[in-house]
């Protein structure tokens, strides 16, 4: 049978078991408090990210409308030297050419991505073989 040993300290003597129980209780309280702090910090970060994403969305929408205004300005600018219908037609054709080029580039990128064959099983096999070799040596 093990006897409880009294540890003298300031104020009163406590057994080693009492000290271990106190340390265990304080440690678990510390872990809970740290988890709560991390949760509060993540919530705050989420709020800030949400606000930033909202502002970026608003900026994108305003930029979209600004593009429309600039296209109208291009049509009106050309209309000073050409008939208005011809100015609008020229700007529209240029926009369709740009859209066609972007579509072809996008299709080429998609086709190129289909050729890339990701195979994570091979990487796991290589890692497993390396671990096996390390254990055997």
Automatic annotation (TrEMBL):
<feature type="transmembrane region" description="Helical">
    <location>
        <begin position="55"/>
        <end position="78"/>
    </location>
</feature>
<keyword id="KW-0812">Transmembrane</keyword>
<keyword id="KW-1133">Transmembrane helix</keyword>
<dbReference type="Pfam" id="PF07332">
    <property type="entry name" value="Phage_holin_3_6"/>
</dbReference>
<keyword id="KW-0472">Membrane</keyword>
<dbReference type="InterPro" id="IPR009937">
    <property type="entry name" value="Phage_holin_3_6"/>
</dbReference>
<feature type="transmembrane region" description="Helical">
    <location>
        <begin position="84"/>
        <end position="105"/>
    </location>
</feature>
<protein>
    <submittedName>
        <fullName>Phage holin family protein</fullName>
    </submittedName>
</protein>
């Amino acid at each position: 049978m093990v006897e409880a040993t009294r540890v003298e300290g300031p104020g009163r003597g406590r057994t080693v078991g009492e000290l271990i129980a106190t340390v265990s209780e304080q440690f678990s309280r510390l872990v809970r408090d740290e988890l709560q702090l991390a949760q509060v910090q993540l919530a705050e970060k989420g709020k800030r990210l949400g606000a930033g994403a909202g502002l970026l969305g608003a900026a994108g929408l305003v930029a979209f409308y600004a593009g429309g205004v600039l296209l109208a300005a291009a049509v009106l600018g050309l209309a000073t030297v050409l008939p208005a219908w011809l100015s609008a037609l020229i700007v529209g054709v240029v926009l369709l050419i740009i859209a066609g080029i972007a579509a072809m580039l996008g299709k080429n990128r998609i086709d190129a991505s289909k050729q890339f064959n990701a195979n994570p099983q091979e990487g796991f096999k290589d890692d497993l073989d390396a671990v096996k070799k390390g254990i055997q040596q």
